[in-house]
Design brief:
Number of strands: 5
Number of domains: 1
Order of helices and strands: HHEEEEEHHHH
Strand order of the largest sheet: 3-2-5
Distance between the termini: 32 Å
Helix content: 40-55%
Oligomer: single chain
Structural class: mainly alpha
Radius of gyration: 28 Å
Largest sheet: 3 strands, mixed
Number of helices: 6
Length: 199
């Protein structure tokens, strides 16, 4: 008897297949956003200021993971870790925890305003577009996978109709079907068993 394609198994297969497809791209996006965060930080604080900030005793300045920046008409939190959110985070376990010392006045509000024509504004817009495109591609793939997996009821049938999904589905086919425990000891007493042969 083939294992039933339960909601849990469908979700696990979908997550694994989408991680296979999108993991590297999401990791690359996170690193690109972290590099961008560093570039904005280095632009806000010149080298000599960063050195002075680094020389201060621990606790004298807040260590933050982000600050608020205005790029043209768009206000954004710029994360030094390249943080992203939403469905893309299901595609990878990769995370960064970059934090930098910032001036207390930059811990909230807007730390700097860049003109829309500034190169950092252009880079910011490019990263936003890249992230939006990646989210759209992920969402579309997830919807199509959900439809494909909902069209069958067993793991065996899924692999028969879509052989390429086997690397993500085969392990669920080997799971034994759930059977309720049968109280055989009590039934033996009730039925006066065992007997040598049926009457």
């Amino acid at each position: 008897m083939s294992a039933r394609l339960t909601k849990h198994i469908r979700e696990a297969i979908t997550k694994a297949a989408l991680a296979h497809r999108f993991c590297d791209e999401v990791k690359s996006l996170i690193d690109a956003k972290a590099d961008f965060g560093r570039a904005v930080y280095d632009d806000l604080y010149k080298k000599e200021d960063r050195q002075k900030m680094a020389d201060l005793p621990a606790g004298w300045l807040p260590e933050n993971d982000s600050f608020g920046i205005q790029f043209g008409a768009s206000f954004s939190r710029v994360y030094f870790s390249g943080y992203t959110y939403g469905p893309l985070m299901r595609a990878t376990d990769y995370k960064r925890s970059d934090k930098f010392r910032i001036l207390s006045k930059h811990a909230s509000g807007c730390a700097k305003v860049y003109d829309a024509t500034h190169k950092l504004s252009a880079t910011h817009e490019g990263l936003r577009s890249r992230e939006a495109d990646l989210k759209s591609a992920y969402d579309a793939a997830e919807r199509q996978m959900t439809a494909a997996l909902n069209a069958v009821t067993t793991v065996k049938r899924l692999i028969e109709t879509w052989p390429e999904i086997a690397p993500f589905a085969t392990k669920y086919e080997t799971e034994a079907p759930y059977l309720p425990a049968i109280p055989t000891g009590q039934l033996n007493k009730i039925l006066d068993l065992p007997v040598s042969e049926a009457a």
